[in-house]
Amino acid sequence: MSLNWEDFLSGGNRRQSITPLGIRLARYTGKTCSVPQLNQALKSADGFKLAADSFNEVFPGIVLGNKSIAQDVSKLKSLGVTHVLNAAHGAIDVSKEYEKVGIEYLGVPADDVPTYNLKQHFEPAAAFINTAVKKGKVLVHCHVGYSRSPTLVAAYLMLYQELTAQESITLIRGKRFIGPNDGFLRQLCEFNDQLVEEGRLELP
């Protein structure tokens, strides 16, 4: 079954040029989380770098990857993938191929820019991932599996595994090099604040 984002709602390298907006985002501090904290969790000894592999299993039942693995339908079947969440819907779309082999698909038309409101997709995307891991295995991908897709996986971990934003980013980063842009990190911090305020997430 194939869904676009509107139907579902109704039923690169992260280091970009520094601008005044970029500086504000990089320094963002919420009530329970800050962008500098999340950036610190993302850094390796060599700084920020791209993943060497096209995909990595970052949590039981969740494969995080790039467009290369997303387009290799036979490989997905061999991995046991039953669902695909595409965070770059529009730029990358092989949903018709998934439909032929019974892979359920959800496309999120997100742009990898700090000003894009990815938070609007957090809860629906997390719900899709949660359904997928109960039924089988899900590939969550974007263009390089570095910014958009790991942000959505982090939102799932926060909502359904009750991890904080920092714990979620740290867990994913332990399995794959990732680097959500500072705008997405800010949105994860805002989501962290929201979940704590609503009593859906407890701080350690």
TrEMBL record:
Q: Tyrosine-protein phosphatase domain location, by residue?
A: 54-197
Catalytic activities: O-phospho-L-seryl-[protein] + H2O = L-seryl-[protein] + phosphate; O-phospho-L-threonyl-[protein] + H2O = L-threonyl-[protein] + phosphate; O-phospho-L-tyrosyl-[protein] + H2O = L-tyrosyl-[protein] + phosphate
According to its UniProt record, the EC number is 3.1.3.16, 3.1.3.48
* Keyword Translocase included in the entry's annotation: no
Query: Domain of life here?
Result: Eukaryota
Q: Which GO terms describe its molecular function?
A: protein serine/threonine phosphatase activity; protein tyrosine phosphatase activity; protein tyrosine/serine/threonine phosphatase activity
Transmembrane regions listed in the UniProt entry: none
Q: Which UniProt keywords apply?
A: Hydrolase, Protein phosphatase
List the active-site residues: C142 (phosphocysteine intermediate)
Sequence ranges assigned to domain Tyrosine specific protein phosphatases in this UniProt record: 120-176
The answer to whether UniProt assigns keyword Hydrolase to this entry is yes
InterPro entries, per the entry: Atypical_DUSP_subfamA, Dual-sp_phosphatase_cat-dom, Prot-tyrosine_phosphatase-like, Tyr_Pase_AS, Tyr_Pase_dom, TYR_PHOSPHATASE_DUAL_dom
Coiled coil spans: none
Q: What function does this protein fulfil?
A: Dual specificity phosphatase able to dephosphorylate phosphotyrosine, phosphoserine and phosphothreonine residues, with a preference for phosphotyrosine as a substrate.
Protein family: Belongs to the protein-tyrosine phosphatase family. Non-receptor class dual specificity subfamily.
The name on file for this protein is Dual specificity protein phosphatase
Organism of derivation: Branchiostoma floridae (Florida lancelet)
Q: Which gene encodes it?
A: LOC118405714
